[in-house]
Amino acid sequence: MYLIILGPPGAGKGTQSILVAEKLKLKHLSTGEILRQAVTDGTELGLKAKEVMDSGNLVSDDIMIGIVKDAISNEDAKKGFILDGFPRTLEQARELDKIMDSLGNDAIKVINLTLDDDELVRRMLGRGRKDDTEETIKNRLVVYKAQTAPVREHYGSKSAVFDIYGIGSINEINDNILAVLK
């Protein structure tokens, strides 16, 4: 099974993707974790990514596409994976389609977590991350609506897309996700 988890920042994508990966024995591929590690390590990519992320913007498609291509080409991802944090733009979605076609895998399912903006801001301010100020959070939501929300429409025309409302306990939301995947 090949999954993508979509949703605005703060919707619970990271938490849910980890749980889904564990329960369905999928490789969890979090582009956010990969990028944060590069920032911590002070790599050239990490320094470039840090500057972009600190302003609340998205890392370039070229950087992200390269990271994801390497990750899903690894042997441990061939048995199934869940992509957390990618694709975030239509260009990334189109490139992912090409990568999946080249690997002979075209049946991607999409989980789309939805939540209202006020709840997202409240959650993100509560995380305590240095880059989670109200200003950067609101900018992330604007960027998400402009660039990432259209990705849901892209997959809606070609794949199974499941919209899941992200209110409830972590387990309730996870149960809802697993129910639609069966």
Main sheet summary = 5 strands, parallel
Give the C-alpha Rg: 16 Å
Poorly predicted parts: none
Number of domains: 1
Per the CATH scheme, the topology name is: Rossmann fold
Describe the structure.
- This protein has 182 residues and is of the alpha/beta class.
- The chain has eight helices and five strands; from the N terminus they run βαβαααβαβααβα.
- The chain has helices at 13-24, 31-41, 44-54, 61-73, 90-102, 117-125, 134-156, 170-181, and strands at residues 2-6, 27-30, 81-84, 108-114, 160-165.
- A five-stranded parallel beta sheet has the order 2-3-1-4-5, with helices on both faces.
- The model has no long low-confidence stretch (mean pLDDT 89).
Topology:
Layout: E1 2-6, H1 13-24, E2 27-30, H2 31-41, H3 44-54, H4 61-73, E3 81-84, H5 90-102, E4 108-114, H6 117-125, H7 134-156, E5 160-165, H8 170-181
Parallel strand pairs: 1-3, 1-4, 2-3, 4-5
Helix pairs in contact: 1-8, 2-3, 4-5, 6-7
Structure described in brief:
This protein has 182 residues and is an alpha/beta fold. 57% of the residues lie in helices and 14% in strands. α1 crosses α8, α2 (31-41) packs across α3 (44-54) and α4 runs parallel beside α5 (90-102).
Characteristic terms for this protein:
alpha/beta; Rossmann fold; 5 strands; five-stranded parallel β-sheet; 8 helices; 182 residues
